[in-house]
Every structure is written in structure tokens, then in C-alpha cells.
Amino acid sequence: MQLKNDLLLRAARGEKTERTPVWLMRQAGRILPEYRAVRSSVSGFKELAETPELAAEVTIQPVDILDVDAAIIFSDILVVPEAMGLPYDMIEQRGPSFPKTIQSLADVEELRSVDAHLELEYVYEAIRITKKALNGRVPLLGFAGAPWTILAYMVEGHGSKTFSKARKMLYTEPQLAHLLLQKITETTIKYLKAQVVAGANLVQIFDSWAGILSPAQYREFSGPYINQICAAITEVPVTVFAKGAFFALPDFANYPCSVVGLDWNMDIATSRQAVGPDKSLQGNLDPCALYGSFDQIKAETHKMLQAFGPDRHIANLGHGVYPDTAPDKVRCFVESVKEYRHQPE
């Protein structure tokens, strides 16, 4: 199907665009009353994500309401460990919790990997329903967690400021960590390929806990596995978003990904230089900027766009939109991107 708005895909491929495309991480939900209405009709987050018709509905809401240039499928990075045999609960106000964690070689060997992605048919069905309903209006994005971030939850069992149990494994049982990372990687590749078959136009790899590793550990326990995934997904552009890992940007220059996401702590000019001329960048307005006045949001957005320049940029926040952000402030950000025209330096 021919896309009516392919700005994001063209920007990802490095082609000229009439303006900078824009979407937001975590746009499907949280801030929108329309999302909360759908969410309240079911038992909670997991039931919503596992019900394809409802997941499709909330995926499309930000396209209708915020007029963003892409939809991202409503799901969670932790569906992968669950498909591998490690179920999780999503606890209101606290986040994910794994009743059982990975602690030994026996635990890793018990995990499914060869056919684990087949457990995620509800995600593929949500993509197919969304794709049909969008009818070519905008691209549909798929995603998965980076192997290190997934390992962090599987070993720790919940969110953490330090992920000290997961990081301990890297020091005390590095071979076990590599074994688990490889299993996660193989499942993730199959999962993302199935998303593409279902209709995803671009996929993003979220390495949410990249920044808690040292550069040396990141290069051993995260980067190579992301590189494997990028190399395996050849059908659509791939975005790598490694929060906090500014030190890894020169490495990403050599990965076969199309787009590198920046968080708001990463300097735009330095990052552009680090990843080189052959990658597009995504980001990176501070999500807290959307608490400002409309004039402030517009000014900050325009300043960001000017710094990125007119080419090879997808406008976004430097992380997910915060849940107490007013929808009209988010709309102001989107409109500020769309109205902006680059000035010569």
C-alpha cells in the first residue's frame, strides 16, 4: 500500500523531506483521556496490550488526536521474556515484576528460544489490524527491547535504579550472561521480522538501561547483540535508541542501522559528528520542556530543529512523554515541528 505520508521513512533513509517528521515515544497512551477510557474498560495494561483490537485502537489515537507522522504499535518490551517462558505482572504505579527470575544455567536452558516468537501472535494481529485501519495515512513502527535491557529485567525481576543483580552477573558469570543475551537476541530477531511481515514499516530497538553500564561493559554485553539484530533486519529501516550511552555513538556509526536516537543529555552537534554522515538522528527534546508555556515549547522546539538541521532528522523527545503532560502541550510540540522552516546558518 502506498503511504500518503512517508516523511519519516524518507528521513530515516536519508532522503530529502519537505519538513522534519515528528512522533513521540510513549505517544500511544498515558497522556490521552481517550486512551485512559479504553484502558479502564479492561483489567489493566497487559490485557489491553494482549487484545489486538484494543491495542490497535490506542495505537491509532495519537495519529487522530495529535496528528503525528507515525504510529507505534501499543505493546511492551517485556513480551519477549514472557514469550520465552518468564511471565511478568504489570503493577499499577510500580511497573513490571517477574515472579521468577534468571539465576542459573538451568534457568537459562529452560527458556524457549527457537519458537518463542510464535507466542506473540497477538502483537502481529494488532499490527495487521492497525495497518488496515491506518489505510496508508502514516507509517507504523514496531519495536523490541535491546537484549541487555531485557536481561536486566529477567535477572533483577523488576525496575531498579542500579540493576545491581543484573550487573553483578556480568562480573561473576559473564559466560552465563552471554548465553542468555544470545538467546534473547535470537528471539528478538524472529519477533521483529514477524512484526515486519505483519506490516511494520520501521522497527526501533529500545536499550532503556544502556547508560548504567560502563563503556567497556556496553561494548561487550550490549553493542554486539544490537549489531546482530540490526544486521538481521534488512527489510525496513532500524532505529537504535540507547538511553544514556553517549559513549556508544561512535560504535553505532558502524552498525547497519538507519537511525540513531538521542536522549536529551546528548549534544546534537557532537552526536552528529560521532555517528557520521550516513545515519539519521532522532530526538531529542527534554520531555520536561513540555511542562513549559506554549511559547517556551515552541522556542525550545525550534532551537532543537535548527541544531539538527533540515536533513536526516526525525523529531521526537529524548525519552517517552511523561504521563502528566497536558495533551495540548504535546500538540504544541507537534505543531511547532510542522510549522518550522530551516534558516540558513
Automatic annotation (TrEMBL):
EC nos: 4.1.1.37
Keyword Lyase assigned to the entry: answer is yes
Q: What residues does the Uroporphyrinogen decarboxylase (URO-D) domain cover? A: 21-30, 141-157
Q: Which residues bind substrate?
A: R26, Q27, A28, G29, R30, D76, Y153, S208, H319
Could you name the domain of life of the organism this protein comes from?
Answer: Bacteria
Q: Which reaction does it catalyse?
A: uroporphyrinogen III + 4 H(+) = coproporphyrinogen III + 4 CO2
Q: What residues correspond to the site Transition state stabilizer?
A: D76
Q: In which pathway does it act?
A: Porphyrin-containing compound metabolism; protoporphyrin-IX biosynthesis; coproporphyrinogen-III from 5-aminolevulinate: step 4/4
GO biological process terms held by the UniProt record: protoporphyrinogen IX biosynthetic process
CDD domains per UniProt: URO-D (cd00717)
User: Which keywords does UniProt give here?
Assistant: Cytoplasm, Decarboxylase, Lyase, Porphyrin biosynthesis
Pfam hit, one: URO-D
> Which GO MF terms does the UniProt record name?
uroporphyrinogen decarboxylase activity
Show the InterPro entries listed in the entry: UROD/MetE-like_sf, Uroporphyrinogen_deCO2ase_HemE, Uroporphyrinogen_deCOase
Cellular component annotations (GO), alphabetically ordered: cytosol
Subcellular localization(s) per the UniProt record: Cytoplasm
Q: Which residues form a coiled coil?
A: none
What role does this protein play?
Catalyzes the decarboxylation of four acetate groups of uroporphyrinogen-III to yield coproporphyrinogen-III.
What is known about its subunit structure?
Homodimer.
* Entry similarity comment: Belongs to the uroporphyrinogen decarboxylase family.
> Cross-referenced NCBIfam families, in alphabetical order?
hemE (TIGR01464)
Q: What is this protein called?
A: Uroporphyrinogen decarboxylase
In which organism is this protein found?
Answer: Adhaeribacter aerolatus
